[in-house]
Amino acid sequence: MNKKIAIIGAGNLGKAIAKGLLISNLISPNNLTLTRRKTDKLNSFSEKGVKVTSNNIEATKNSDILIVCVKPHKFEAIINEIRPELNNNHILISTVTGLDIKHIINITKKDIAIYRAMPNTAISIQESMTCISSNKLGENKIEIIKNVFDKLGKSVVIDDELMGAATVLSASGIAFALRYIRASMQAGIEIGFNSELAQLIASQTVKGASSLIISEGAHPESEVDKVTTPLGITITGLNKMEYNGFSSSIIQGVLNSYEKIKNISTK
Ligand SMILES: NC(=O)c1ccc[n+]([C@@H]2O[C@H](COP(=O)([O-])OP(=O)(O)OC[C@H]3O[C@@H](n4cnc5c(N)ncnc54)[C@H](OP(=O)(O)O)[C@@H]3O)[C@@H](O)[C@H]2O)c1
């Protein structure tokens, strides 16, 4: 890709996006700029030839695509800082939780293409699920943006109203899935595996389960049916999990996270 990208606020997510962009060869290191105040935390990137700076204005001037990855309460200050350098050719992508497109337009005060992207940290290994929305001006370039995120996993374009739901199901969802893996490991150790083997078996099993659904397009329950022999051991375990609230606890957790998004402070 011949565009220059700046990631403003290269923390956990920003670094994960940078890693994904580099390993996918979508961009060469010298076309990528990362900003944060503690730039020493980005040495592993500067060693690869990525530009690292705490100067958001310089980063904006020297880039075509700006991916803003700061915490919600920092977004407005960052935009105020870079606004004088923002021009009609810039593409602005916000990964910031809880700030909808209307709000971003009000803060930006510029007629530029604006996108929201909600990836998860698996973007660092090109396995993100990224949901994307845009303002009206961004609609005609959305395929360019989708193409970028498709190289970093899978992506879908959704209505901006669904972005909160996307945040919980995908960005938080990765933590929910990881907790399942950790719980499986803990159980695996109790029934005889050392932690290394328990981790391998639990995580590869989850990967296999996801791959079955993604590659076959099957409903999860039809795959469960194939494993639950009548009078068998799997259904006994599943029923005990459900008795203890397995599905309902996941649903309640997702709903509680979703409720919290509405209360995110942007000030
Ligand atoms: N983590 C995820 O999986 C994920 C997924 C989807 C969306 N999001 C959203 O993405 C945003 C970032 O999340 P995160 O988890 O990556 O947070 P994070 O780790 O705290 O990263 C934010 C970074 O912004 C930098 N920063 C703060 N002030 C700055 C400034 N004035 N100029 C430049 N950089 C500045 C901070 O570094 P310094 O202190 O060194 O400046 C920090 O490393 C949040 O809004 C979050 O809701 C996160």
Describe this structure in words.
There is one protein chain. The protein has two domains: 5-158, Rossmann fold; 167-261, Orthogonal Bundle (ProC C-terminal domain-like fold). 49% of the residues lie in helices and 14% in strands. It contains eleven helices and eight strands. An eight-stranded mixed sheet has the order 3-2-1-4-5-6-7-8, with helices on both faces. The radius of gyration is 21 Å and the shape is elongated. NADP nicotinamide-adenine-dinucleotide phosphate binds at residues 8-9, 11-14, 35-38, 56, 69-72, 74, 78, 95-97, 118-121, 171. The site of NADP nicotinamide-adenine-dinucleotide phosphate (NAP) has 25 residues, from helix 1.
Bound ligand species: NADP nicotinamide-adenine-dinucleotide phosphate
Which segments are poorly predicted (pLDDT under 50) over 5 or more consecutive residues?
Answer: none
> Nearest-angstrom radius of gyration?
21 Å
Strand content: 5-15%
Give the termini distance in whole angstroms. 35 Å
Question: What is the number of domains?
Answer: 2
Corresponding CATH architecture of the largest domain: 3-Layer(aba) Sandwich
Q: Tally the helices.
A: 11
CATH superfamily of the largest domain: NAD(P)-binding Rossmann-like Domain
- Give the SSE order as H and E letters: EHEHEHEHEHEEHEHHHHH
Helix content: 40-55%
* Largest β sheet strand count, sense and barrel closure: 8 strands, mixed
Overall pLDDT level: 96
How many beta-strand elements?
Answer: 8
The gross shape turns out to be: elongated
| SS-derived structural category | alpha/beta
Q: CATH first level of the largest domain: which class? A: Alpha Beta
Q: What would the CATH topology of the largest domain be?
A: Rossmann fold
Strands of the widest sheet, in order across it, are: 3-2-1-4-5-6-7-8
